[in-house]
DNA sequence: AATTAGATCAACCGCAAGGTT
DNA sequence: GAACCTTGCGGTTGATCTAAT
């Protein structure tokens, strides 16, 4: 069943039973907005205590300036798909690549629009125990609580089904680990083995992102610049995606 | 017109990391 | 260094919508 895009207000309809969810009213939004304009961001615990609502979330996902609302453009969709293949469920990182989009929005968009369209996932939109849950378990478990990539050792492996013969395994290391992992600096693999692409960074915020891609075709899709000679740069929409230069990776 | 199934999205929840005391 | 507090993140839930029956 194809559903029309559903635009809903956050306002509870008058006459309805009191909702379990604490939806925001426009006047509450206004109050919060004025509060932040006056006092600045922060002190969310205090504000939330006073209001009884999650003000930080509301501000971050809805009220913050430059929040872009409305349909995703084709470019944004493509970027989300490709970033998700590369990064998994690291919504904040993906959202950081999409100006004006929040991680929550990207996550919702993925779960509702894109997840079901990917060949590696079971089709369907039923929520409970379905596509989102089942498919994402592999990288959900991986990425959960491990996405503080700058600060902690993170290892993730995203495998796929037979429909998508690509395997991405990413390993993010803290600078401490760099001594023992010299091969992460720059690496070339023989063509007959798994292609092992790596970006490296330096200084405090550095981390290493290793991508094992079994299919050279897939590698070329993600990294057109590294067909035979490896070049540690990804390209998104003609934009070089270089780990050590990209603020998206260093944004913390 | 009423009901049902499925889609959408705002908000909630719990955990982990970082910061402060 | 420990304890507490704050913030960020990702998974999940629930309300409400629309199209189909």
TrEMBL record:
Location(s) in or outside the cell: Nucleus
Compositionally biased region (Low complexity): 149-162
One GO process term, biological-process aspect: regulation of DNA-templated transcription
Keyword Zinc-finger: no
HTH myb-type domain location: 20-63, 64-118
GO molecular function: transcription cis-regulatory region binding
SUPFAM superfamilies the UniProt entry points to: Homeodomain-like
One GO term describing the cellular component: nucleus
Coiled-coil zones: none
Keyword tags: DNA-binding, Nucleus
Protein name: Uncharacterized protein
